[in-house]
Amino acid sequence: MRLIYTICLLSLLSTTAQAKIYRYVDDQGRLHFTNVPTDTIYKFYRDEEKGTRLSTLIDHYADRFHLDAALVKAVIKVESDFDPKVVSRKGAQGLMQLMPQTAREVGVSDPFDPGQSIYGGTYYLRRMLDIFNSNLDYALAAYNAGPNTVQRFGGIPPYDETRDYVVKVKKYLDYYRNTDAHID
To answer: Which among 7, 63, 114, 151 is placed 20 to 30 Å from 134, CA to CA?
Structure first.
């Protein structure tokens, strides 16, 4: 009996979880993915191994908003550590930690949906880079503390949280640029 249990356990551990993934692109250009299509608008996309969905979303939206995918990964790492259900003590939600007002401004109705969160976060990050003339430090500070705060201080505000945030994101940016690290 113990032998049968061991064989069953080993066979479960050795199989790779794969699923058929379906997607569609809505009128705003947002990608929607599912493994259980509920409508004919979803078209077969590919068989995916667990853990690659976020990479696909990150790559798509980084490309769409002309961002470095490593930067998007770094922001997600620092914001949520890739936990799509996290809520900060200040009320920011999801992978890219969108505040409810910011989520509404960028057209995100469900910040806990990874696709919507990455869409909204990358769109907002692109806006911050545009506002601050591609100054990464200022854009990251604005992502964390808000653009008005960065403008009021003429740069990174004198808040430990914001200063630490900029340093951490840049550290992970270097990490993701220089490794083939898996993100989830």
So the answer is: 114
